[in-house]
Write a structure and sequence with these properties.
single chain, Phosphoribosylpyrophosphate synthetase, seven-stranded mixed beta sheet, globular
């Protein structure tokens, strides 16, 4: 999997691969931002992959992009700012967004910065 430099680049790639619905958290489910009738409980979707991005000057700018597939065939994305939703969602939903599951593609994790050679 490709490592993306920006959130926009990753979202465009995912949209091209069919992840077209935008999701937002609401207590114990994810809802489609364009249709309040579309709600996914934690047992109705899987996290396929994720990508983390850090701000260049402020670590508080960290964002995580989740690629989600629903059991009904719907595919979409959920963008989470670090810690933003932690008090708004149920523990079950937070556990579902835990990307330590072996089936989640973790290659989009933050890549280490290569150290510069020491000056001579």
């Amino acid at each position: 999997m490709e490592h993306f430099t920006t959130l926009t680049e990753a979202m465009e790639n995912l949209r091209g691969r069919g992840y077209t619905v935008d999701f937002a958290p609401a207590k114990d489910f994810l809802k489609a931002t364009t249709d309040d009738n579309i709600k996914l409980k934690s047992d109705e979707f899987e996290v396929d992959e994720f990508h983390r991005f850090e701000g260049t000057s402020d670590p508080g700018d960290e964002m995580t992009l989740y690629a989600i597939s629903a059991t009904n065939g719907m595919k979409g994305v959920f963008v989470s700012a670090q810690g933003t939703y932690s008090n708004e969602v149920s523990p079950e939903l937070m556990a579902k967004l835990n990307v330590s599951h072996p089936n989640v593609n973790t290659e989009g994790a933050v890549q280490p910065i290569n150290s510069l050679p020491a000056s001579q």
